[in-house]
Design brief:
globular, 10 helices, mainly alpha
Length: about 200
Amino acid sequence: MHPRLVLSFALALMLSPDRAQAQTAVSVAAQIGDFHLAVSNYYHVPEREVLVIRERRVSDDELPVVLFVAQRARVSPMQIVDLRVRGLSWWDISARFGIGPEVYYVPMTVAPGPPYGRAYGHYKKPKHQWNTIVLSDADVVNLVHLRFLSDHYHVSPERVIELRGHQGDVRSVNAQLSRHRSDGRHDEGHGANGRGPGKSGHP
């Protein structure tokens, strides 16, 4: 073989892994949106893992719940996805790993409106009776979203609820809060609440 051909072939072998890695990075960046990036950052998981979970037909609404429950249960997100795909409710999955209703509770200073009023109605019980609470899938999803958006963007839960009332869906609320942070604006009177994805936030 001609020496130049040998050199070209060797260079191609040396460069191809980097090129493949670059193409993969571009592919991941093209598929992931602002909401998914926020979820990835908040739960400290790679963007690629977020995409893998989505490929299992997990909706965006339930994506943060998968990661929240997985971290609380100290298992891989795919274990949680497998249980969900099998048809288990979020409450059944939580109970399987010993996750109680106190984990989902986010302290509030006012009585919340839709879509949180029903969930918070359960927590009006005396705390020693919280072990009788059974949350619906919608309750779990809404409470996890509330914690995620409040913690990630350092705004009060009340502010998130206010925006949900105007915007409706969680992705729209995420987009608005992201724009506010990018513009350097902060909602007056709403500071960081000091909770993270690994803390329950209950009193």
